[in-house]
Amino acid sequence: MLILPGILWREIEERTRLALPDEACGLLLGKIIAGEFEVSALAAGRNVAVDPRTHFEIDALDVLEAEDGARAAGLSIVGVWHSHPRGPLAPSAQDETHACSSWLTLIAVPQEQGGMELGCWRKTEGGYESIGVGQPIAVRR
After folding, report:
1. Cα distance between residue 30 and residue 16, in whole Å
2. Contact 87, 112 (CB under 8 A)
3. CATH of the domain at 131
4. Number of domains within the chain
5. Within 10 A of 108 (CB to CB), how many other CB atoms are there?
6. Considering only CA atoms, which of 93, 62, 69 is closest in space to residue 80?
7. Does residue 5 or residue 141 have the better pLDDT?
């Protein structure tokens, strides 16, 4: 299960909207406790993809900086998040090239009426396993 504080949900939503029409991206920092991914911070990620409207690629320097910052805070990178501005709420074939086997993949899809839908997956040998799509993600206020 992914545990994501409400303030971080709102931060992902804001970063997603600010990046439109491009995909936004970043890293999830936290701890894995008793099989639960507890996210306590986000690390910014610059999207350096050739076509940021349809792909994401986090700048390698941002990943290194996030690793250093996480380590200093007693945390680790537990996942990557990015947006699909036009949907769908599911990992794409391109997303698979960025999936680290031990990291979660969190996808944000902005809704036309406002708000955002989130989905979370874990990479497995057979593809992706959903660990929370939409509201099943536990949000701490």
Report:
1. 21
2. no
3. 3.40.140.10
4. 1
5. 23
6. 62
7. 5
Burial of 92 (0-12, 13-18, 19+ CB in 10 A): middle
Place of tokens 């031990």: 102
* 76-83 sheet: strands from edge to edge: 127-133, 116-124, 104-110, 76-83, 25-33, 36-45, 2-5, 138-140
Q: How far apart are CA 68 and CA 77, in angstroms?
A: 10
Stated pTM of the model: 0.88
In the block, which residue shows the tokens 């504080």?
5
pLDDT tens digits, residue range 80-93?
Answer: 999 999 988 888 87
Q: Report the alpha-carbon distance of residue 79 to residue 105 in Å, rounded.
A: 6
Mean pLDDT check: name the lowest of 40-44, 77-81, 119-123.
119-123
What is the rounded CA–CA span in Å between residue 27 and residue 70? 10
Choose between 46 and 93: higher pLDDT: 46
The closest of 90, 94, 83 to 132, measured between CA atoms, is 90
pLDDT of residue 97: 63
Helices (H), the chain: 6-19, 60-72, 93-96
Q: Which residue range forms the structural domain that includes residue 109?
A: 2-140
